[in-house]
Amino acid sequence: MAPKLSKNKGGKTSKSDRDEGLSASEDHEEVKLAGVTQTSEAESSDAETSRESNPANLDNIFQAIISLKSEFSAKFESVLTILTDVKNQIGDCSARLTEAEERISQTEDTVDKLQSTAKMLEDKIKLLSAKTEDLENRSRRSNVQLVGLPEKAKGRDACGFLENWLPDALGMEPLRSPLIIERAHRIASVRSEYKAPPRALIMKFLNYKDKVRVLNAAREKKEVLYKGKRVMLFPDFSAEVSKKRQRYNEVKKKLRAKGLDYRFLFPSRLQVSFNGTLYTFENPGEVETFLDNPPENTKLN
């Protein structure tokens, strides 16, 4: 406890009394600091004593660290093993991919060669088909199709019947030499009904000029009859040419309705006579355009 300072008669504290009070206060502070220091040293000593008295705790911690290290090492080894397997698999996939790329490259080269060969063969087939088509039509150039003739009209000798009947039916002038037909036969087909239309008859003339004279006479005659029944004569062409010409059927009806003359040019071009001028068309569309927009703004009835 701090000492009390005495007062003089005037109520004032003397200088000696103040000095004594300060000295006593400083002594008290030093005692407090000494006590704190002793307490800290005692706590530190107790901690060291506790560690020295519990060596088992350090061993446990050390053993735990060793155990964690062993466990981590084992797991790390397993991870390394997995990574090695993955690396090997990636290497295997890379090798397979390289092999696949090589095979694809070889296949592409082979495909390019095959495409070139196929294109060459395709062109060759087109050329051969055109030649075959031409040869077939040349072999038919002396043929004429007769449509509408009754099945039993020709008798047993078809050639003799046609040689005698055609000049009379077509009104042909006396010929210097008679028509000679090499052979004649019906087009093979299955007649499902007894009253089915008669099959077309194909006749082959010995002389090409005779074939031309017969067709010209039929064109001039306009209507050829056999016992009151209408028959028609056409040039004989291959199936391909006939198919191309059939595409003009609709425009031919329109041309006939408008009174325009027309004829085919081999193989499948159509020639139309209009106001004394001949117009040649490559396909039915051109004929349609011609009919819709005739030349010189001439209206077609």
Write a brief structural summary.
With 301 residues, the chain is an alpha+beta fold.
Q: Catalogue the unreliable spans.
A: 1-16, 18-22
**Total of DSSP H or I helical runs spanning 4+ residues:** 7
Strand content: 5-15%
> Strands across the major sheet, in which order?
2-3-1-5-4
Count the E strands. Answer: 8
Distance between the termini: 147 Å
Task: State the CATH topology of the largest domain.
Answer: Alpha-Beta Plaits
Average pLDDT over all residues? 81
Helix content: 55-70%
The CATH class assignment of the largest domain is Alpha Beta
Order of helices and strands: HHEHEEHEEHHEEEH
**CATH hierarchy: architecture of the largest domain:** 2-Layer Sandwich
Number of domains: 3
- Alpha-carbon Rg, integer: 62 Å
Largest sheet: 5 strands, antiparallel
Biased composition (Basic and acidic residues): 14-32
InterPro entries: L1_C, L1_RRM_dom, Transposase_22
Domain L1 transposable element RRM: 141-233
Biased composition (Basic residues): 1-12
Can you walk through the features of this model?
- Residues 14-32 have a biased composition (Basic and acidic residues).
- InterPro entries: L1_C, L1_RRM_dom, Transposase_22.
- The chain is 59% helix and 14% strand.
- With 301 residues, the protein is α+β, with helices and mostly antiparallel strands.
- The chain has 3 domains: 70-138; 141-236, L1 transposable element, RRM domain (Alpha-Beta Plaits, 2-Layer Sandwich); 237-301, L1 transposable element, C-terminal domain (Rec A Protein, domain 2), CATH 3.30.250.
- A 5-stranded antiparallel sheet has the order 2-3-1-5-4, covered by helices on one side. A 3-stranded antiparallel sheet has the order 6-7-8, with helices on one face.
- Strand 7 and strand 8 form a beta hairpin.
- It is rod-shaped and about 150 Å long.
- The model is unreliable at 1-16 and 18-22 (pLDDT under 50).
